[in-house]
Amino acid sequence: MWKWDYVIELLPALLQAFGVTLGATLAGFALSIIIGLLFAVGARSPIVPVRLTVRAVVDFIRSTPLLVQLFFLYFSLPMLTPFAMSAFATGVIGLGLHYGTYMSEVFRSGIEAVPRGQWEAATALHLSKRKTWFSVILPQALPPVIPMMGNYLIVIFKETPTLSAITVVELLLTAKSEASITYRVFEPYSIVGLLFLITSLLFSLGIRYFEKRYFGGHIADGGGKR
Amino acid sequence: MNLPWLESLPLLVDGLLITVQVAVLSSVVALALAAAAGLARTSRYAAIRGLAGTYVEIFRACSLLVLLFWVYFALPFLGIELSKVTAAVLAIGLNIGAYGAEIVRSSLKAIPEGQHEAGIALNLSPNERMLRIILPQAVARMLPPFGNLLIELLKSTSLVYFITLSDLTYEAMVIRNNYYTWTPHIFGSLLIIYFLLSSCIFITFRLLERKLTAWR
Question: pTM for the full model?
Answer without folding.
Answer: 0.91
